[in-house]
Write a structure and sequence with these properties.
Elements: H1 2-50, E1 65-71, H2 78-85, E2 95-101, H3 107-120, E3 125-128, H4 136-145, E4 152-155, H5 166-170, E5 179-188, H6 195-217, E6 229-232, H7 233-238, H8 249-259, E7 263-274, H9 280-307, H10 313-323, H11 328-348, H12 353-356, H13 360-381, H14 385-404, H15 406-418, H16 437-441, H17 451-472, H18 482-500
Parallel strand pairs: 1-2, 1-4, 2-3, 5-7
Antiparallel strand pairs: 4-6, 5-6
Helix pairs in contact: 1-6, 1-11, 1-13, 2-3, 6-13, 6-14, 8-9, 9-10, 9-15, 11-15, 11-17, 13-14, 14-18, 17-18
Length: 504
């Protein structure tokens, strides 16, 4: 009986180790795709410096443009948005501005007053409302498209503020008839508002400068980012129009369009400023939508990608990990949870220690991410020792907070893969750069505390236990996973701390 129990424990331990190593391998492969993106990014930067492409000129006859502004209960930012859009430099007779307002509060009346005000100033703006929110943002965009007169459709979310010459910089790229979308890089109005906004900016910079540039440079599938971009109307219709069956309608349409051979153009030098979420609840809401939507699109699109005859194997392979981007949170969570019992398995089964050497894949992955993101930091903030030291601090904080969000985002990913539907939850906007007092007066500011706050506290204690266990699993101790558990403890503790704070 004891022998049988011993075998069961050993097989169970091997199963844990197998799952652990498999997830590590997936994380490592994903890190290699990031390294590949860095290679393409550096190639692009070198080309831009040594043989810059001539900027395309405006067409002799300017096309008609429709600007769509999808809104839902945005009383704090709608005035700022319309004021900004009214200053767009483009012939008014060639411009149509659609305020697609699905609001259910007093902001709808505010939108009406503001639209009327700008109409009196000869701004070609119109208010379009729906009786219901069917399809959420995708439904609003599709509804507006029915009356859109523009050959091209520019889209801006409520918290984005394009520069006046935005259209003049993007429209020329449509001289290539195969270009279906031109996407611009997001800027950050409130990057330095708090630690949370700093880390969000860090992550988004990596996406826009490393991933978007790299994919575009190599003609891999990239995604329209939901805002700050402009579509050829023909492309939208040819790809099947907007669909509201996922929470990331932008990623969905991007894939459908590129599978039909439309090309996307990404402009890293055209920056569209936007406001980052400033509260933990707002970040959770946005992260949940993005990560669940990513998993939903994997479920919806991966079969079409694999079966497509229009793209190469390398494009398919990259698309696989692109669609699985959000699923990395689930891998991180599994690796994190299993790492604590593995301390004891390693001590109990010394004959299996050679397998634990493979856990170095996580260290290798971390170093790859560190190496890749440094180039992005250097591009924005410059090089030098002080910049590098600041980068180390920022990277470690980013890495720990990514781990801290692993539970929340993993649940989103699982719901997406399992096909569980949920409504499109807007991210609260605050219209703030420095003054945090406005947060408490925002009626859409949700409480930070939730069931996740308690879960994150439990996980913080779990990894604290993992740190202390390193001292007692053997006579000499085992500190190989100590830095990993320390980062996890910091990450979950930080998220728990911010979850307790009423405003941040």
């Amino acid at each position: 009986m004891e022998i049988k129990l011993e075998l069961i424990i050993r097989y169970f331990s091997l199963a844990i180790l197998g799952v652990y190593l498999f997830c590590l391998l997936l994380i490592f492969i994903y890190s290699l795709t990031q390294l590949n993106m860095l290679r393409y990014y550096l190639r692009y930067e070198n080309k831009k410096i040594n043989t810059p492409d001539p900027l395309p000129s405006l067409p002799k006859t300017l096309p008609k443009i429709t600007i769509q502004l999808p809104l839902y209960n945005e009383p704090y930012v709608v005035e700022r948005l319309l004021e900004c859009i009214s200053k767009i430099e483009y012939p008014k007779n060639k411009l149509q501005i659609q305020v697609l307002d699905d609001s259910t509060d007093e902001s709808l009346e505010l939108s009406k007053r503001l639209v009327l005000k700008h109409q009196k100033n000869k701004i070609p703006v119109e208010l379009i409302t729906r009786k219901d929110r069917k399809g959420f943002k995708a439904g609003a965009l599709k509804y507006g498209l029915e009356t859109a007169t523009g050959e091209f459709i520019a889209i801006f979310d409520a918290d984005f503020l394009p520069q006046p010459d935005w259209l003049l910089k993007t429209i020329p790229h449509f001289k290539n008839p195969n270009i279906g979308v031109v996407q611009t890089r997001w800027g950050h109005l409130n990057r330095h508002f708090s630690v949370l906004t700093e880390i969000q900016a860090f992550a988004l910079d990596a996406h826009f400068l490393l991933e978007q540039v790299g994919r575009n440079q190599q003609n891999h599938i990239i995604n329209f980012n939901g805002t700050a971009g402009i579509w050829r109307k023909e492309c939208i219709l040819d790809a099947g129009n907007w669909e509201g069956d996922t929470l990331t309608e932008d990623l969905d349409l991007s894939y459908r369009a590129q599978l039909k051979k439309w090309k996307f153009q990404y402009l890293d030098d055209v920056v569209t400023p936007a406001e980052l979420p400033v509260t933990l609840s707002a970040i959770r809401s946005q992260q949940f939508r993005w990560n669940k939507g990513g998993a939903e699109n994997f479920r919806k699109m991966i079969g079409k990608v694999i079966r497509s005859n229009n793209i190469s194997f390398s494009v398919k392979f990259n698309a696989l990990f692109h669609l699985l981007n959000s699923s990395m949170f689930l891998n991180v969570l599994i690796v994190a949870v299993l790492s604590v019992p593995l301390l004891f398995i390693k001590a109990y089964y010394p004959d299996l220690r050679f397998l634990f050497n493979l856990s170095g894949l996580f260290v290798a992955s971390t170093l790859i991410f560190f190496f890749c993101y440094w180039f992005i930091h250097k591009r924005i903030f410059g090089g030098g020792l002080s910049s590098f030291l600041e980068y180390i601090k920022r990277f470690l904080l980013f890495y720990s907070l990514v781990m801290g969000f692993a539970v929340h985002n993993s649940i989103a990913v699982l719901e997406g893969h399992l096909g569980k539907k949920s409504p499109f939850v807007r991210t609260p906007k605050f219209n703030i750069n420095t003054d945090s007092s406005r947060i408490s007066t925002n009626k859409y500011s949700l409480k930070n505390s939730s069931i996740y706050t308690l879960i994150e506290f439990v996980f913080a204690l779990y990894f604290l236990f993992g740190m202390f266990s390193a001292f007692g699993v053997s006579a000499e101790g085992d500190f190989g996973l100590f830095p990993f558990h320390l980062l996890l403890f910091i990450g979950f503790s930080s998220i728990f701390y911010h979850g307790l704070k009423p405003n941040l």
